[in-house]
Amino acid sequence: MKNKTLIILTCGFFGLVLIINACKKDEVELPVVPDKPTPEEPIVQDLTPYELNYGSFPPPQLPADNELTKEKVKLGKMLFYDKKLSNDLTLSCASCHKQEDAFNDIRKFSIGTAGLPGGRQAMAIFNMAWHRAGFFWDGRAPLLRDQALLPIQDPLEMNETLENVIVKLDAEEIYKNQFTRAFGSEEITSEKIGLAMEQFMLTILSMDSKYDQVESGKGSYTAAEQKGKDLFFKEYNEFFPNESGADCAHCHGGANFDNSQFMNNGLDTDAEFTDLGRAKVTKDPKDNAKFKVPSLRNIELTPPYMHDGRFATLEEVIDHYNNEIDSSSTLDRALLATRSTGLRLSDEDKRNLIAFLKTLTDASLANNSEYFNPFPE
Q1: pTM assigned to the model
Q2: Cα end-to-end span (Å), the chain
Q3: pLDDT tens for residues 48-88?
Q4: Distance between CA atoms of residues 3 and 100, nearest Å
Q5: CB atoms within 10 A of CB 91
Q6: Which domains does the chain have, with CATH numbers?
Q7: Which DSSP category does 135 fall into?
Q8: Contact 216, 64 (CB under 8 A)
Q9: Which H, E and C letters describe 252-286, residue by residue?
Q10: What are phi and psi of 263, to 5 degrees?
Q11: DSSP run (H or E) holding 262
């Protein structure tokens, strides 16, 4: 009896196992449902301020209607380096304003998309927050945002229309997103392009030269540099030659070594004027052959010199001011006063003056990652 019971229990157990296994074979395996994806955060305007560290410079007069933000500066840098702003996608603003050359073009004239040279030597872009009285050699752009848009439309430069630029940028999701972060809307307009590029250019600072380091007590000049500095800041004196200097600070003074004025520095006589400079904007003959006085910072890195790039070296520049100034009806009066004797600089004086000018070179500018191209090449 016990054996029969054992047999029945054993059969029952194996039968149950078979039934369970059969049921398992018939089960439908349900797909694994992943966790519900979290929706992406919506892209919104980011008004985080961009802090401009201007060191010992006087506080800049930044545009009140275009306060610096990190996202607008980022957008401006993208646009500055983007070749989509040119008609054939070969040129960007950075093509003619290279960081390694202090955001300058060391060619006599920049070459545009049509293969034609520009009309004037490209100006360096740094410390723009301290520029006054308009931009370009003739001051035709009242604000930096205006300056940003004009090369795009110039047939000798990028040779494109703002309408076409907007179409090209609007086709890129990355730009729609960045315009939203910068301005709160993905709508792209020429006004916003100008404002963003203005912001990036306002952040390009150059104020870490040997001159800055020495003047802040972190170094010292060589004997030649010190003599050159003395000549640079000492005024010209016709009647006391031993007390006379090169009088450079008359035009190139202040923290940025400029004066934001338009001046005729004696390159030509009236009969030789081929570029009327400021007068092309004002239509006033009193402005004939007057050009904006540029900063002398990084002058070692930014040849050639003058609005037409006629001087290849600093030696040529100093020779011009020393004894080669031409008289004309609009020549600056301070320069006119030196024509009777010249500056009377000796060869050693010239070498010392150049030694000082080279202390204005800011080597860190070329390696500042804040200004690097954001697009891989």
Answers
A1: 0.88
A2: 91
A3: 999 999 999 999 999 999 999 999 999 999 999 999 999 99
A4: 99
A5: 22
A6: 70-206 (1.10.760.10), 210-361 (1.10.760.10)
A7: B
A8: no
A9: CECCCCECCCEEECCCCCHHHCCCCECHHHHCCHH
A10: -140, 150
A11: strand 262-263
